[in-house]
Amino acid sequence: MKEDIYILGIESSCDETAAAVVKNGREVLSNVIASQVPVHRKFGGVVPEIASRQHIQAVLPVIRQALDEAKVAQKELTAVAVTYGPGLVGALLVGLSAAKALAFALDRPLIGVNHLEGHVFANFLAEPELEPPFLALVVSGGHTSLLKVTDYNAFSLLGETRDDAAGEAFDKVARYLGLPYPGGPEIEKLAQKGDPSALAFPIARLASPYDFSFSGLKSAVINYVHSQVQAGRPVVKADVAASFQKTIIAALVNKTIAAARAEGLTQIALAGGVAANKMLQKTLSEAAAAAGARLIHPAPILCTDNAVMIASRGYYLYKAGIRSPLSLNAAPALGLGG
């Protein structure tokens, strides 16, 4: 009889302190998240030093709660998986230090996990039958990337953003429109009241077919609003939000479908915080179906930062015999496949 594998995942790359226990890579036994959104909202974004202090206060209670809810004793854990990058260096170090201490005390393997790969692996929890190969679109506040997943531990980067990530553009436009942090969900909510065809915003054309650029789009939106205000003309914020969202989604969908066709892939996985955007899900799902492919995406709770995805990714690294030394350090600029 095969022995069950219990992985404790720990995530602290930005403003969520999270811990989870996952059994055999795909069965979620607990998922605990301590969000800092209310703390950072008054600043209009994440303040790194405050985030680090909040993680220090929350990390041990969150780990304890995750183990309690999973009904798994520390000694039953097979390994401890933790995000070591990319992210805010101070925030990463809190989770990493806790994971190292626990792994050392329990004499269990430490498994460092790339946060971006973790987002991709959230799809294995959403779709139990999902197997490589597939195409992954990772869309978050810090990253926008197209990734070909050829095996559980084999990835190739097809394209990425040259400047602002999609989520970053959402947040910056939201801030300029006077919407609260986090901006992405606020843009999506406001866009439902607007006309997506009201305004024509440009999107950058790049020589590389699968790379993205959203800085120009962000600037175009800001310049439009500024010129309207300077001229004393009204700004219909709902129309701005709807037109901006339509443009950014079109860029994401068009490049993703082109990559899927070129690579001959019929499965597309959506990952990252922006993956929770319902219009993106709908538009990409319809485009995938028209191209003879299907879209998989996690539930909203697994789109944003969480430790379930870290534990799941850690499981497949563990199965492959991949371990991390206790000297593992934070890698704030870690890329996909790193």
Shape: globular
Q: Which ranges are low-confidence, i.e. pLDDT below 50, for 5 or more consecutive residues? A: none
Q: Let me know the average pLDDT.
A: 95
The CATH topology label of the largest domain is Nucleotidyltransferase, domain 5
Number of helices: 11
Q: Report the portion of residues in β strands.
A: 15-25%
Secondary-structure content class? alpha/beta
Keywords for this entry:
globular; five-stranded mixed beta sheet; Nucleotidyltransferase, domain 5; alpha/beta; 44% helix; 338 residues
Explained architecture:
It is a single chain. The protein has 338 residues and is an alpha/beta fold. It has two domains: 6-120 and 303-319, Nucleotidyltransferase, domain 5, CATH 3.30.420.40; 132-298, ATPase, nucleotide binding domain (Nucleotidyltransferase, domain 5), CATH 3.30.420.40. Helix content is 44%, strand content 19%. Helix 5 packs across helix 6 (183-191), helix 5 runs parallel beside helix 7 and helix 6 (183-191) packs across helix 8 (237-263). The radius of gyration is 20 Å and the shape is globular. The two termini are 35 Å apart.
